[in-house]
């Protein structure tokens, strides 16, 4: 059953809920305890019609006060199904309504404060799934720990990452395919320009992502359009310096040829025809193409286009051209294959560059209730419940030790955002250690520096 996103309401501000001015107009948030939340703030114009497959456009101004008390719709994506363990884990309330009009962000901030550290969260999902307000990504506890958390939706799948020679031809810069990445950059620029209205320090922005979101972080610290806009970066389950990225990093030429072949097979040979495709129909094109031809095109993802992404993260890291900021980087004990690789190499390169890299492993295998089909272990994404301290929103039988471990983790993450140091030593040649987040047999926090545990 789909959760309905309420229709936008414009209203006069209630006296007990704060109103701030941002790009586009005035917005009103809601207060809970000591946290104020603004949900569904537009950070760009709806990327629909003529704006499909174009860089995000300036936000459309509104009159009056926009009540930001509900989340904006996520980008079109396949529905989660019961056979997907992640449906049981994070999407147990069902999927929300999806829309091509998806460029909205959310802000959680302490009710009072100024010059606060800011973290911009980039959700994962193979660049084809997910949204910025999944239950595990709740920002209430983050704000209670003295930081501002911003999450957002970006264009996914073929809406976000279709490279095609006709799209490159119409673009004055001669590129295509990185629309979702440009959405991430637009969200970061929005934070830079507007976060002071919420008490944030625009010079102290940390970008943070997990899985595909971590790969988005790697792209943002590489892109000349964004790498000077952040003070720190957190890469969770996105690998380090690898031989080849698990997602993305195709050349523009290769990506154009691939997706042109898919579109021609589907019967779309002009931009007018492609822009007439219903967004829900775009979801099926890759699958149908694969079934018919036996060729699997893979997930649409960022491409090396020479402009937005002039080179790969690996090359830029090795040659000293990524953002010169502190980094946190890590993975989970039972992570997906390859996402634990290249981390030590990345940390060594950062040591040579003179900026710290703090490595970690999440090694707590989550408690469960024995139901079939659920995810077990310290699986990919399992740390999210802990570093957001959102365990209260999960069905899992978490223990007092889990809550204590979560407190340690959210403290480390928010401390890094505030200071550039999570309160453990950086990985160096002299001290090549990870912080291992775990519990002992007595359900007590037993996290310590050391060598990563083996699955």
3D architecture notes:
With 455 residues, the protein is α/β, with parallel strands linked by helices. The chain has a single domain (19-248, 303-450), classed as Alpha/Beta hydrolase fold, catalytic domain (Rossmann fold, 3-Layer(aba) Sandwich), CATH 3.40.50.1820. It is 27% helix and 18% strand. The protein contains 13 helices and 16 strands. The protein has helices at 85-90, 140-144, 157-161, 165-170, 179-194, 212-222, 252-266, 271-275, 279-293, 313-318, 343-353, 384-387, 400-419, and strands at 19-22, 25-28, 30-32, 35-42, 65-67, 104-110, 116-122, 148-152, 200-210, 232-236, 250-251, 303-304, 327-332, 357-362, 434-437, 448-450. The protein has an 11-stranded mixed sheet, with helices on both faces. A 3-stranded mixed sheet has the order 1-2-5, with no helix packed on it. The longest helix is centred in the C-terminal third of the chain and has 20 residues, at 400-419. The radius of gyration is 21 Å and the shape is globular. Residues 1-15 have low confidence and may be disordered.
Features:
455 residues, alpha/beta, Rossmann fold, eleven-stranded mixed beta sheet, three-stranded mixed beta sheet, disordered N terminus
Itemize the secondary structure elements and their pairings.
Layout: E1 19-22, E2 25-28, E3 30-32, E4 35-42, E5 65-67, H1 85-90, E6 104-110, E7 116-122, H2 140-144, E8 148-152, H3 157-161, H4 165-170, H5 179-194, E9 200-210, H6 212-222, E10 232-236, E11 250-251, H7 252-266, H8 271-275, H9 279-293, E12 303-304, H10 313-318, E13 327-332, H11 343-353, E14 357-362, H12 384-387, H13 400-419, E15 434-437, E16 448-450
């Amino acid at each position: 059953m789909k959760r309905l996103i309420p229709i936008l309401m414009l209203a006069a501000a209630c006296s007990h809920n704060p109103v701030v001015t941002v790009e586009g107009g005035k917005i009103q948030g809601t207060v809970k305890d000591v946290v104020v939340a603004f949900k569904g703030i537009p950070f760009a114009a709806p990327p629909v019609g003529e704006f499909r497959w174009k860089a995000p456009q300036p936000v459309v101004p509104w009159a009056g006060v926009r009540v930001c008390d509900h989340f904006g719709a996520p980008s079109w994506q396949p529905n989660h199904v019961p056979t997907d363990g992640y449906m049981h884990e994070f999407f147990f309330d069902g999927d929300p309504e999806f829309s091509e009009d998806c460029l909205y962000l959310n802000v959680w901030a302490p009710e009072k404060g100024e010059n606060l550290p800011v973290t911009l969260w980039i959700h994962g999902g193979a660049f084809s799934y997910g949204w910025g307000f999944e239950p595990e990504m709740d920002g209430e506890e983050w704000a209670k720990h003295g930081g501002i958390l911003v999450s957002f939706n970006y264009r996914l799948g073929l809406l976000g990452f279709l490279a095609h020679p006709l799209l490159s031809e119409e673009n004055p810069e001669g590129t295509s395919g990185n629309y979702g990445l440009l959405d991430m950059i637009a969200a970061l620029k929005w934070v830079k320009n507007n976060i002071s209205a919420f008490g944030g320090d625009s010079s102290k922005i940390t970008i943070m992502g997990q899985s595909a979101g971590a790969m988005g972080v790697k792209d943002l610290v590489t892109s000349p359009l964004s790498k000077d806009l952040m003070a720190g970066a957190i890469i969770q389950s996105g690998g380090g310096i690898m031989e080849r990225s698990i997602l993305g990093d195709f050349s523009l030429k290769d990506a154009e040829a691939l997706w042109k072949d898919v579109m021609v097979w589907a019967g779309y040979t002009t931009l007018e025809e492609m822009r007439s495709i219903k967004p829900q129909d775009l979801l099926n094109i890759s699958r149908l193409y694969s079934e018919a031809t036996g060729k699997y095109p893979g997930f649409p993802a960022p491409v090396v286009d020479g402009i937005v992404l002039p080179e790969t993260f690996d090359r830029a890291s090795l040659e000293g051209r990524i953002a010169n900021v502190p980094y946190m980087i890590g993975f989970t004990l039972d992570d997906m294959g390859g996402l634990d690789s290249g981390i030590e190499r990345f940390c060594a390169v950062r040591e040579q560059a003179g900026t710290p890299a703090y490595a970690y492993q999440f090694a707590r295998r989550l408690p469960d209730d024995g139901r079939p089909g659920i995810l077990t272990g310290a699986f990919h994404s399992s740390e999210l419940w802990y570093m957001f301290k959102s365990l209260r929103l999960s069905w899992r039988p978490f223990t007092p030790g889990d809550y204590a471990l979560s407190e340690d983790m959210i403290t480390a993450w928010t401390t890094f955002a505030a200071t550039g140091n999570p309160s453990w030593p950086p990985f160096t040649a002299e001290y090549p250690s990870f912080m291992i987040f775990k519990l002992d047999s007595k359900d007590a926090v037993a996290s310590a520096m050391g060598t990563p545990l083996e699955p």
